[in-house]
Amino acid sequence: MMRFMLLFSRQGKLRLQKWFTSMSEREKKKIIRDMTTMVLARQPRSCNFMQWKDLKIVYKRYASLYFCLGVESQENELLALEIIHRYVELLDKYFGNVCELDIIFNFEKAYFILDEFLMGGEIQETSKQIVNRSIEASDMLQEVRFTDMHAQMHLVKHCDLHLWCEHVTSVAWLSV
Amino acid sequence: MPAVSKGDGMRGLAVFISDIRNCKSKEAEIKRINKELANIRSKFKGDKALDGYSKKKYVCKLLFIFLLGHDIDFGHMEAVNLLSSNKYTEKQIGYLFISVLVNSNSDLIRLINNGIKNDLASRNPTFMNLALHCIANVGSREMAEAFASEIPRVLVARDTMDSVKQSAALCLLRLNRTSPDLVPMGEWTARVVHLLNDQHLGVVTAATSLITTLAQKNPDDFKTSVSLAVARLSRIVTSASIDLQDYTYYFVAAPWLSVKLLRLLQCYPPPEDAALRSRLTECLETILNKAQEPPKSKKVQHSNAKNAVLFEAIALIIHHDSEPTLLVRACNQLGQFLQHRETNLRYLALESMCTLASSEFSHEAVKTHMETVINALKTERDVSVRQRAVDLLYAMCDRSNAKQIVAEMLSYLETADYSIREEIVLKVAILAEKYAVDYTWYVDTILNLIRIAGDYVSEEVWYRVIQIVINRDDVQGYAAKTVFEALQAPACHENLVKVGGYILGEFGNLIAGDSRSSPLVQFNLLHSKFHLCSVPTRALLLSAYIKFINLFPEVKATIQDVLRSDSQLRNADVELQQRAVEYLRLSCIASTDILATVLEEMPPFPERESSILAKLKKKKGPGKLPDMDDSRRSVNGSTEHSENTDTTNKSSTHSFTDVLNLNSAPSSGANLLIDVFSESSAPPAATDVSEENFPRFVCKNNGVIYENQLLQIGLKSEYRQNLGRMYVFYGNKTSTQFLSFSSSVSSSDALKSQLNVHSKAVDPVIEGGAQMQQILNIECVSDFSDAPVLNIQFRYGGALQNIAVKLPVMLNKFFQPTEMMSQDFFQRWKQLGAPQQEVQKIFKAKHPMDTEVAKAKVKRHKSLWL
């Protein structure tokens, strides 16, 4: 299982932190400090894996951002690397050529996308299409005024749950 | 297409973030943040009710401030309001805030749980997913208590949407990890296993994660998953025709699911059913074959995903450890990776081969790659790869290649990274000892270690070489000669001086026949290092000198002069001074016979597990070291367990007297030494130890432990894990002062190594009617049965009072509860079958049983429960 995911800049500024187990703020700060110093000190073209205490650290740099994942020792390092890549792809799809600024100014979106993709330290959905679709669906939800939604819900109240959902996703598709 | 500004962007938030980014200094940033916090606080406290949008915006700002690393202690209530909102965006932000800033306030948790409950019941999949995510993110016990029984229902319900099933499976997995006792097993478990057959690969992936975790704890309950997993894996891996659509990642079919299925299979032994087994073998062979096929894409993602599956398949092959052909194929595949141009693959190949080296089927195959690995050690640019190479060399080492591997490690040590030097030193020391056929090689190796990396040679390493030299008389002469030569170097490491001092002190006579190493030359050589050394080493050298007096009467006068000099007799360090005084006196008054007895050669050390190995294990954590066969344990193959690994932890100025575990060796000298000098201070007359109140403290931690007409001693204690703290309160019951008050804790010899008790010093005066407190820090090192004794001395009206009280520090104070499923418990319970493990005692009750009282008591308890 994954224990944490950190995004930080080349200057060591933390851009996103996701913890999959409960930890005290002090422990978190210590890990953040250790990770940024360790990862930033690595030579270019080194391998993407490190041993840190009982964890495997998998990191990769995309442009100015470092993505750093702490996973338990029995996890597969290469796939952890691809989890990072998939997340970057998802961000890229959502923001369109994602850059560090997108993540700074839309940090809550970056969290929502991560939440669609990972959960409880495990991968939830590996299909890019499905994740994208559900992120867009929720973006659509926020544009549909609640009153309309409410009316729709009333209409479909006695229908099958499936139908209602398909209705919502089809609204999302329209925007694509 | 989505754009950055989509959704209802919060302008105020964006402005605030760019304000922060424009701050020139940390101070300016803090100022801006404080201003914003004040603003938000006033908005939240204001009379005007905030609309949802503003609330959302402010909560988002708080979140941003928190993520910058500042403390946030308000806003939770607003966040809870948001998550109970019917608007999706507000709900989403509310949940995010609560997930990131978990709060343990119970009122709040009740409200949050209420919100979650409503969303779970809403039958709206988006809301349900948000709620499940929040539970998984927080994962607290309260949440587990509230929802652990509900989530399995959601998971296996027929009409649950796929995405909700995925969230429910992973949410349950999280709760099972944090509070396994609260997640009930039941009929849902069988239905979860069948999710492996689900149409939706996302559901299968999530379910596999859940089943793997559950199967690790209760393999029997999930046995049926093996055949389903093999079937699923085989469909993904072997049939090229299946279109997995979006679950194909860079031309690799469902890599995440494949890896998860392979991991699930690693919870079980190879399948017994022949058909199933051959189907699995076919899968593994296909994966190995695919590694040889040309890549379908040049992208690194393709090769990563493909090799991820390959490495996991190899992990399963190693786990089964039953198919020699597969093991050897795996080893050859890894061998190819050892020379791959991708650093990542070389790293992983080295790591994976480490486990392969411990299998009897593939140990030899691994050894064929030794040259490549040695080369990696020399040429890899990345320290983490070199570290793996060291690990692998260590794992593949056996009698046939030990000399070469140790030599390579030693030469690498000269240039090795500082961060891994200590570990390499430990590994070299262990290998040298384990595979030493002739011990001269061993002695040479350790002395080389000290020469090359003296600073990284921990105490364990040089204690060990001394233990071995003392226990093996065939190597003693050689050791004396070698250390003598090594000490000739103008600058030698202090650790070498220690080893040299000890060995020459014991066995210098073996080389004294040669005029080039006559007693005087030996002594002068050692003494030339004396002034450059630290206090513990000097102390050791003084002991070596007194041993010299016994070995070589001809240098007695020279040594006595040295001991008599002011720099020794009046040394500022009390330990050195004492040694000088005592040794000088001993050499003057004792007859040759007494000297010979006192300073006799050290008796052999009892065989025990190498403390170096224990240290390496501690460093690497359990499970990181390949298993050692018995001959690797110690020189003579004895497997007695180490009871002394903690001796170095005992901090005292005398630590160097027991560093070599002299306390556990039958040392004949120590007692005599005491006899010679015992005239001055007789030990205080023994007092009776009071243990009258001792039993009362078995189950309680506070109370009065001792009382007489003068003094009352109260205790308050608390224990956590292996540590305890005891507050001792001394109450003066009289109206006169207690003078020269002192209290100390003493333990029996056996107890000393099992329990560390450290007492803080106390004031020597207790006023009449006053109370004084003393703190004792207690550390439990291993199990013990004795109790420490508190010795108190003070003067009351001119008369010296001695009181000794047995302190109620008992093993049960350090007990900790452990959680286990009823099955595990009964399994363990049933293992306790031996007759001496069972005791039953029937005795007559002292008091008759009063039905009414009993009823009342039961009733009271019952009402508490309700």
TrEMBL record, chain A:
Keywords: Coated pit, Cytoplasmic vesicle, Golgi apparatus, Membrane, Protein transport, Transport. Its main location: membrane. It comes from Astatotilapia calliptera. This is AP complex subunit sigma. Pfam families: Clat_adaptor_s (PF01217). One of its GO terms (biological process) is intracellular protein transport. Adaptor protein complex 1 (AP-1) is a heterotetramer composed of two large adaptins (gamma-type subunit AP1G1 and beta-type subunit AP1B1), a medium adaptin (mu-type subunit AP1M1 or AP1M2) and a small adaptin (sigma-type subunit AP1S1 or AP1S2 or AP1S3). Belongs to the adaptor complexes small subunit family. InterPro entries: AP1_sigma, AP_complex_ssu, AP_mu_sigma_su, Clathrin_sm-chain_CS, Longin-like_dom_sf. CDD domains: AP1_sigma (cd14831). The keyword Membrane applies. One of its GO terms (molecular function) is clathrin adaptor activity. Residues 1-140 form the AP complex mu/sigma subunit domain. PANTHER family: ADAPTOR COMPLEXES SMALL SUBUNIT FAMILY.
Automatic annotation (TrEMBL), chain B:
Residues 634-654 have a biased composition (Polar residues). Residues 616-654 are annotated as: Disordered. Residues 695-808 form the Clathrin adaptor alpha/beta/gamma-adaptin appendage Ig-like subdomain domain. One of its GO terms (molecular function) is clathrin adaptor activity. A 1,2-diacyl-sn-glycero-3-phospho-(1D-myo-inositol-3,4,5-trisphosphate) binds at R11, G12, K43, Y53, K57, Y58, V59, C60, K61. One of its GO terms (cellular component) is AP-2 adaptor complex. Its main location: membrane. GO terms for biological process: clathrin-dependent endocytosis; intracellular protein transport. Keywords: Coated pit, Endocytosis, Membrane, Protein transport, Transport. It is found in: Membrane, Coated pit. InterPro entries: Adaptor_Complx_Large_Subunit, AP2_complex_asu, ARM-like, ARM-type_fold, Clathrin/coatomer_adapt-like_N, Clathrin_a-adaptin_app_sub_C, Clathrin_a/b/g-adaptin_app_Ig, Clathrin_app_Ig-like_sf. The keyword RNA-binding does not apply. It is a peripheral membrane protein. Adaptor protein complex 2 (AP-2) is a heterotetramer composed of two large adaptins (alpha-type subunit AP2A1 or AP2A2 and beta-type subunit AP2B1), a medium adaptin (mu-type subunit AP2M1) and a small adaptin (sigma-type subunit AP2S1). Component of the adaptor protein complex 2 (AP-2). Adaptor protein complexes function in protein transport via transport vesicles in different membrane traffic pathways. Adaptor protein complexes are vesicle coat components and appear to be involved in cargo selection and vesicle formation. AP-2 is involved in clathrin-dependent endocytosis in which cargo proteins are incorporated into vesicles surrounded by clathrin (clathrin-coated vesicles, CCVs) which are destined for fusion with the early endosome. Belongs to the adaptor complexes large subunit family. This is AP-2 complex subunit alpha.
